[in-house]
Design a protein that fits this description.
The chain is α/β, with parallel strands linked by helices and 434 residues long. It folds into 3 domains: 152 residues, GTP1/OBG domain (Spo0b-associated Gtp-binding Protein, Chain: A), CATH 2.70.210.12; 181 residues, 3-Layer(aba) Sandwich (Rossmann fold); 68 residues, GMP Synthetase, Chain A, domain 3 (2-Layer Sandwich), CATH 3.30.300.350. 21% of the residues lie in helices and 21% in strands. The chain has 9 helices and 18 strands. A 6-stranded mixed beta sheet has the order 10-11-9-12-13-14, with helices on both faces. Strands 3-1-8-5-6 form a 5-stranded mixed beta sheet, with no helix packed on it. A hairpin with a 2-residue loop joins β17 and β18. The termini are far apart. InterPro entries: G_OBG, GTP-bd, GTP-bd_Obg/CgtA, GTP-bd_prot_GTP1/OBG_C_sf, GTP1-OBG_CS, GTP1_OBG_dom, GTP1_OBG_dom_sf, OBG_GTPase.
């Protein structure tokens, strides 16, 4: 089964907890703090693998977790860091944050990888909190939580040339004639249900990849037929071979077919019309093809649909007439056409390199639930809470000082909180004290 888009959940590992410990060696009963740091949590990493062709492996396995770091030990020993969880994906996979629709990475080359969820750092042990005023602190941090995300994976075939056109115009037949691919071929519409890839090898050692995309029909960009499922695979191609049946066997106007297919491309993405097209007149071995081709050329000469006028070539995949000139012309145009960027990646890079970044959310928000409890939320505040070890009084007092430093106390008073009111953070509830 060809699977080219999935949505999965990834969760990085939490950092290990720091430890509260003291040296109790012989002759040193008050040896000072000796609690070690927690280890780093494992990150979730996507890496390109040449052995994969589809996203089928993610069809039934949609949750991926990395291991947590180990807790710190006695005598200042740091816990072991967890190994990263490496997930292999095929070349041409685009990783998108499902919540924000931002492109995280476009993984094209072998060895490309990206950290999708960062593992949490280990919490600090009590050796870090010793001061002259408090030489024996009973204070340590919990490990930071690992990132959790829901991401979409979209596979866009890495093909230099895309074959487009109405069903039964001869795309699969052409692919079989110029490559060693073995697509399904039949005398009925929608023979091709999934994209097929093939390599064209030239005598001078050059080669290029060709993708036979399932037949488009009018309305494909709006979800009609199979076209919408595979239009995205055209995004990576540099040259489009637009196959048009000029035999008259289907009782369709070849020029009208040309306009309808390009209208669907424009509706999906107007930039697709900037790609060079070669209009390939197929089935030239049939009787009426020559006359229909002459009429098509006359109409195309006046057409302004594309950014550059299309090259028109005639072939017969059955007799192999015109295949060699078509391949040579395709290579010639490929050499002159650079790769087109994938939408979203450039915008992401620009944002990372400039100051035009989304404004950060407030450190905390205050709401009140139905029973009068004040509920504190916010990424920074919740992270501080998760890294606080409430089993030790000094850790709890430190957390209270952090809240006061963030302005939580003043904000609660401004909202109308009074002495004795309940305040909740996550699953922890305490009284507000003036």
């Amino acid at each position: 089964m060809f699977v080219d888009h999935v949505t999965i959940n990834v969760k990085a590992g939490n950092g290990g907890n720091g430890m509260v410990a003291f040296r109790r060696e012989k002759y040193e009963p008050n040896g000072g703090p000796a609690g070690g740091d927690g280890g780093r949590g494992g990150s979730v990493v996507f890496r390109v693998s040449t052995g994969l062709r589809t996203l089928m492996d993610f069809r039934y396995n949609q949750k991926f977790k990395a291991d947590h770091g180990q807790n710190g030990g006695i005598k200042g020993m740091t816990g072991r860091g967890a190994e990263d969880r490496v997930i292999l994906v095929p070349q041409g996979t685009t990783v998108i944050d499902d919540e924000t629709d931002m492109v995280i990475a476009d993984l094209i080359e072998v060895g490309d990888q990206v950290v999708v969820a960062q593992g949490g750092r280990g919490g600090r042990g009590n050796v870090h909190f010793a001061t002259p005023k408090n030489p024996a602190p009973e204070l340590a941090e919990n490990g930071a939580p690992g990132e959790e995300r829901r991401v979409r994976l979209e596979l866009k075939l890495l093909a230099d040339v895309g074959l487009i056109g109405f069903p039964s115009v001869g795309k699969s037949t052409l692919l079989a004639a110029i490559t060693s691919a073995k697509p399904k071929i039949g005398e009925y519409h929608f023979t091709t249900l999934t994209p097929n890839l093939g390599m064209v090898k030239l005598s001078d050692g050059r080669d290029f990849a060709v993708a036979d995309l399932p037949g488009l029909i009018e309305g494909a960009a709006d979800g009609v037929g199979l076209g919408i499922e595979f239009l995205k695979h055209i995004e990576r191609t540099r040259v489009l071979l637009h196959l048009i049946d000029v035999s008259g066997f289907e009782d369709r106007d070849p020029y009208d077919d040309f306009l309808k297919i390009n209208a669907e491309l424009k509706k999906y993405d107007p930039d697709l019309l900037k790609r060079p097209q070669i209009v390939v007149a197929t089935k030239m071995d049939l009787p009426d093809s020559a006359a229909n081709l002459a009429t098509l050329k006359q109409k195309l000469a006046k057409d302004t649909t594309l950014a550059t006028p299309p090259v028109v070539m005639a072939i017969s995949s059955v007799t192999h007439e015109g295949l060699t000139p078509l391949i040579q012309k395709t290579v010639e145009i490929l050499d002159q056409t650079p790769a087109f960027p994938v939408k979203g990646v450039d915008d992401l890079q620009k944002m990372l390199l400039t100051d035009d970044q989304p404004a950060e959310a407030d450190d905390f928000e205050i709401n009140r639930d139905g029973d009068g409890t004040w509920v504190l939320t916010g990424a920074k505040l919740e992270r501080l809470f998760q890294m606080t070890n409430m089993d030790h009084e000094e850790s709890t007092l430190r957390f209270a000082r952090q809240l006061r430093g963030m302005g939580v106390d003043d904000a609660l008073r401004a909202k109308g909180a009074h002495n004795g009111d309940l305040v909740q953070i996550d699953d922890f509830t305490f009284e507000f004290v003036e």
